[in-house]
Write a structure and sequence with these properties.
This protein has 333 residues and is α+β, with helices and mostly antiparallel strands. It contains nine helices and ten strands.
Length: 333
């Protein structure tokens, strides 16, 4: 059966989705590939309220996870979602604020330490030429010789200064469902987008009927589709992105026109430079010809002077050189 559900690529729908702590727990567990015991939304929720340049939804979670050895600890999940290509500087600025946030400092006996952090980026665009839809950028520790250091790792001091990242390229999902995470993320796959209304996805619930977690997520998205306020919020987002797209199109057309003008000017400059080179070459040829003529005239003058010195008259020289008397006179002037 095909369900027509709200598209969680929209910030308003995504917020509605992860506000349900069961769904937040399902998502975080799939992302971390670990058992998540508890999830809470951190005190501060960050969203781009002004939306002046980009849409970036931000929300912070605290997750208690159980490691494979049975140990439990708290992890901060800094989740950021964006539709548009975003400068990494914006992500870094947000991370800087999170590192400086005193609420993200833990205490252990007599000293404080930064709570381990994992950043998650749900991107509505592709990252360069990376084909994998899900990327784990995981830090490791090495000695001077490049050998991985495992003894004593993880260490609170090290974990306070570095963090792991998970990058999801939503456009790269394309129906891939090879593992638990891809199954959870499949509800973001925009290949399911309704042909006539991009606010909706057409999801075949038969693909998830044996998975209670996924059916719970679908029911939440189904409820979002029938929520009047969420539909209005999606309309606002569409209006915003339409304005952004129109602005970007105008900028793109302007830049294209400028590029074409620059190319035309460059071609004109190249043509002028080529013409100048041709003129310079012609001038060089004329100068060479003038030099040859001058050299030839010197030779003729020398010959005529020699014949005059031998006592020959101009008429006689004219006959010898095959030139008229007037030509002979012009040469020796």
């Amino acid at each position: 059966m095909i369900l027509r559900v709200a598209n969680p690529i929209y910030d308003s729908v995504f917020k509605y989705l992860v506000e349900d702590l069961r769904i937040a727990k399902i998502l975080i567990s799939a992302l971390l590939k670990k058992e998540v015991l508890e999830v809470e939304v951190r005190k501060h929720e960050y969203t781009n309220g002004t939306r002046d340049n980009i849409s970036m939804f931000r929300i912070d979670f605290g997750a208690k996870v159980r490691e494979s050895d049975g140990s439990q600890h708290l992890v901060l999940i800094e989740l950021q979602k964006t539709w548009l290509e975003t400068e990494t500087l914006r992500f870094r600025q947000y991370l800087g604020a999170q590192y400086a946030n005193p609420d993200n400092i833990g205490k252990e006996e007599s000293h404080e330490f930064g709570i381990p952090m994992v950043t998650v980026y749900l991107l509505g665009h592709k990252v360069g030429d990376i084909k994998e839809p899900i990327i784990y950028a995981v830090h490791k520790a090495y000695d001077y010789y490049g050998n991985e250091v495992t003894e004593g790792i993880p260490d609170p001091f090290v974990e306070s200064l570095v963090h792991d990242s998970i990058i999801v390229q939503i456009p790269r999902l394309h129906g891939r469902v090879n593992n638990k995470l891809e199954k959870v993320l499949s509800v973001f796959d925009q290949t399911h987008k309704d042909k006539y209304n991009r606010q909706m996805l057409n999801i075949d619930e038969d693909n998830y009927e044996d998975d209670t977690d996924m059916m719970y997520i679908l029911r939440r998205l189904l409820a979002a589709a029938s929520d009047a306020k969420l539909r209005q919020d999606m309309n606002v987002e569409d209006e915003y992105f339409t304005a952004i797209e129109n602005r970007d199109t105008a900028i793109m057309n302007r830049d294209k026109k400028i590029a074409e003008q620059d190319q035309y000017i460059t071609e004109q400059k190249n043509q002028i430079a080529e013409q100048n080179n041709q003129i310079a070459e012609q001038n060089n040829q004329i100068a060479e010809q003038n030099n040859q003529i001058a050299e030839h005239m010197k030779t003729l003058q020398a010959t005529i002077n020699s014949l005059v010195n031998r006592g020959m008259s101009l008429d006689e020289i004219s006959v010898v050189m095959g030139k008229t008397v007037e030509e002979i006179k012009s040469i020796i002037r």
